[in-house]
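step=predict obj=Fe-S oxidoreductase n=247
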Amino acid sequence: MNTHFSCVGCGKCCTDHHVPLTLAEARQWAADGGNVIILVEAFLGNGLGLPADQREHAERRSVVVPSGTAEAFVAITFAAYNAGRCRNLDEDNRCGIYERRPLVCRIYPMEINPHIPLNPGAKDCPPESWEQGPALIVGGELVDGELAELIRRSRQADRDDVQTKEAVCALLGICTTALKGDGFTAYLPDMNAFAQAVELAMQQPAASNEWVFHVSAMDIAEQMLDAGARIATQVPANYAFISLRAS
């Protein structure tokens, strides 16, 4: 089955979506007056929280940190905070920074995670977007070479940036993560403090701090404790927990 796509300019992908940013993009976003949200998830060295076939990709975009006596692989996402319309979207749904828009915006609607297939039904684009335009996927393969290169660059930035992102978190006092698949911890730091932390971390990334896990239920907490990980026991002071667990 082939998949076609053509943007119809509805602006839905630019509304109520936190757009993942590379470290350089996050630095620019903050300099432009935008807000950056920090989303954190992790899995344990014993594989808890991660299907085995996804481990290689997950490890490559994670930094190894201690949690109690356990080894945790923490993935940190800096994202443009878009509650409502993106700050760069004009009245005609045109991007005001189109020539320097983030990589993820250039890649849309494709997925960056190789374990997530493109599903038009999961996108906000109207049906007509998928009824016209050039072929994106033919016979299950991405056929746009330029788009494939952008995806490669995005994945590489994930790997290149992770140590510095963790150093930024340390400077901001961020050390609580969620278990991958169970949820995310989400932080909205002061942007002046964020910008200063990025500059410092880029100069000299610090050694990893110990991290603790915020979990959604006792059964997960027991598994984490059995594995030697530390569990957060205090009410969140500087973050929100976004649960991914079915209620």
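step=describe
Helices lie at 23-31, 55-60, 103-107, 145-171, 191-203, 218-226.
step=end
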